[in-house]
Structure formats: C-alpha cells, structure tokens
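Subject: Sanity check before I submit

Could someone independently write out the structure tokens for this chain? I want to compare against mine line by line before I put it in a report. The sequence has 285 residues.
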Amino acid sequence: MSVAGGVSKAVDRAVVHGCEALQIFSKNANRWHGSPLDPAEVTRFRKRIEETGIKPVVSHASYLINLATTFGLLRQQSIAAFVDELDRADALGLLGVVIHPGTCTAGTEDDGLRLIADAIRQAFKARPRRKTMVLLEHTAGQGRTLGHRFEHLAAIIRHLKGSVRVGVCLDTCHLVASGYDIVTEAGYRETFDAFERIVGIERLKVFHANDSKKPCGSRVDRHEHIGRGCVGEEPFRRILHDARFAGLPMLIETEKSEGCEKRGAIVPDPLDTMNLQTLRRLRDA
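---
Independent answer below. Compare away.
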C-alpha cells in the first residue's frame, strides 16, 4: 500500500481493502535518500497497526540497493541505504525488510553471494541490538541477478552462520519465471519439497502473491493479476490450503488502478479488490 500522505495512511488504505497483512515502502524505492520519518506519523502508524490487528507488516527495500556489487562507491551507498531501511523498519515496528539479494557486477556467483552475506553482516554489526529481519526475496533470474535458485538463498544464510534475523520471501511470479514449476501438481510438490530440503520451511516468512505474464523458465519478471497469467489460480489455491504455510502472509504486488484516490479520499482500488477477492475465494473454497 502507498504511504502517500504519511506512513499511517498505508494502514488506512489496508483497512478499506480488508487487508490482514501489509507491505509498504518506507521511502521512495527509486531514490537513495528519503526524508526522515515524521515522529508523529510513526506514532500514528504503530497505533493504527495495534488498533487494526494487521500483521505482519513488512517494508520493501529500495530497488537501487545492490549488495552484490564490486563497485566501491555503489557498495558503500547500498550498505548505507540498507542500514537506513532497517532503521526505518525498526522505528515502525515491522517484522522485516524484503530485499532483492543483488546483481553480480564481476566475479562468480559464489563471489556475489559472499558479498551479499558480508553486506548483511556489516548491517547487523552496525545495529547489533535490532531485531528487524532481513527477508531475502527469491528472484526471477533476469541477467546476472542472484537469488533465483534456492541454493543461492541457502548459501547466503550459511555464510551468515544461520542467523535467526534472516528469513525468505517467495514470490509466485518469480518462482515460475526462474524455472520452478509450481503450476502442475507434481511440479508444485517438487518445488516446495526442494525448498524445505535446501533452505527450510521455517525460514519462509512472506509470500508475494503475483501471477506471471511470462511462462515458466522465461527469467522475466512481469507481474499479472492473479489467475490471469501463466501461473493460474490452482497454485494459489494449493498454497492457501498447504498446512506448511498456514498463517503466512500473502502480499500482492499487482498493477493498481490509476487515479482512484481523489481529493485525499481513501477508497478501495478496484484492481486490488479484484485480486484480494480472488485469493479469499480460493482460500475459502
């Protein structure tokens, strides 16, 4: 949900959509620096979350951050921005920060995975008393991005000596795009059995529920409305009825309507409503 007008407005938007969990950007996702959080807004945000019972709440880190880069200045900027994301999430009382692990700029995949782990280690060292989690998002595998194999996620966690502050976010669009067949019943079973074996179900904290415009193995990250893409409804139904995932949040990142909020009025977005209703129908079936 958008934080336009103040972070507490995101909670109000979640309420009008009947949301049970929430994801926000705590600052502009396409800028390195964000305005400091308004203390009064932080108080209102935390109060509204407590009043509504919406949980968990997570933030998504800036798209500019690349923890796998070998370029000195970019690496310094990325780590500083990442620490700032953790600070903001901590101030807001969030479960964690969802982050794309990073993109190789030089060297091997394992070199990149070690760089990612080292950057996270530096962030933890800078904020040793914080409990905010880092939620590594499984990626679609475009270009030299890392995190599109379960083995990548497991390696980062292993390099961090299994820190309890590290969890995983699985995106249904990214799973299919990266080549994990969750569409067929057999493929679904094999995919999550592999995740359980390689990473561990206990590490999974969040689902991003998105359909995919592109087919399995395309390695192209293009979200589609739920049930209208190459994933289809059935995999979402399976996830919603899979006892291993009971209670885990499913956060949608599908296209929104344009101009549905006018003159500051907070009203339901028809496209968000459509996707949420689809998930609720599948859950209740």
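---
OP: Matches mine. For the report I'm noting this point. The radius of gyration is 18 Å.
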